[in-house]
Specification:
43% of the residues lie in helices and 20% in strands. The protein is α/β, with parallel strands linked by helices. Strands 5-4-3-6-7-11-10 form a 7-stranded mixed sheet. Strands 1-2 form a two-stranded antiparallel ribbon. The protein is elongated.
Length: 274
């Protein structure tokens, strides 16, 4: 089998796709821009990109975003110099989000704290991670870890990576460490990390891609025991609210009766005074 070459150098599968399959490249770029623009909440302050290769993210995200954090698809975790240059140029031209240059692997966001990011974007990044020896599934878990509850993962990725579905992995993620939860009888059922996942296949492409939005659950990261305790506390609060409501209704009824009795007494006294 001959390996395709470009200017004399072996061409990787990612470069082959993005250099020769112009249809897929342009279509996924357009979808990525639309997804970031339309699905980034206006209340979002911090966005993190999984695998920065260029400066396009600055032009995709809304101007209301205050900070864009970088990560790398490379094994050494270094964001390419060219990508930093493009990010800086686009930021200056657009006067948009401040770019925080962080050299961290996309599958090991060691410099980003838990629940500190509003939106994570992953744009044609998983295949490049796979190519460079990174774990794309771990990058999804890392994205979930750094997202705030209710935060969003926006993705435009290849539909399948080495026979595994990107969408299925996101939709069936139940723990942040990738391990399955053992649920004993009587315990609360496993709760998905992403409570809502909306998606659509990218049409008019040669290489199948999927685009979607995954919203992090408020209970993501909690153990079954912690979830049981949370549900118990919520039930306790609900019963307390019901008791308070019943008490307030009782007071109102007593006040109405009292006012009605006073009014009747005044009406009975009126003829006598006349």
């Amino acid at each position: 089998t001959l390996t395709p070459k470009y200017h004399g150098a072996p061409l990787s599968p990612t470069k082959l796709q993005m250099s020769l399959d112009l249809v897929t490249y342009l279509r996924t770029e357009w979808v990525s821009a639309a997804l970031c623009t339309n699905q980034t909440p206006r209340s979002a302050d911090v966005v993190l990109q999984l695998g920065c290769e260029d400066g396009r993210a600055v032009t995709f995200i809304p101007r209301t975003v205050r900070e864009l954090i970088t990560s790398s698809n490379r094994a050494d975790g270094q964001v390419p110099v060219g990508a930093k240059r493009q990010l800086k140029q686009q930021q200056q031209r657009r006067q948009a989000a401040t770019v925080t240059y962080v050299d961290q692997r996309a599958d090991e966001l060691t410099e980003t704290a838990d629940e500190s990011v509003d939106v994570v974007i992953s744009l044609q990044s998983a295949a490049k991670m796979l190519e460079n020896g990174l774990d794309w599934k771990k990058s999804v878990r890392e994205a979930a870890r750094v997202l705030k509850p209710g935060g969003r993962l926006l993705f435009v990725e290849q539909t399948e990576l080495e026979g595994e579905s990107y969408l299925d992995y996101v939709d069936n993620l139940y723990t942040l460490n990738g391990e399955s939860e053992d649920v004993k009888e009587g315990q609360v059922e496993p709760f998905p990390v992403f409570e809502e996942v909306g998606y659509d296949d990218v049409d008019l492409v040669i290489v199948p891609h999927v685009a979607g939005v995954a919203i992090k659950s408020e209970d993501a990261g909690l153990t079954p025991k912690e979830r049981e305790q949370k549900l118990a506390n919520e039930e306790k609060d609900r019963l307390a609210d019901l008791s308070l409501t019943a008490y307030e209704r009782g007071i109102k009824k007593r006040k109405r009766k009292k006012k009605k009795g006073v009014k009747q007494g005044q009406e009975e006294d009126t003829p006598a005074n006349a």
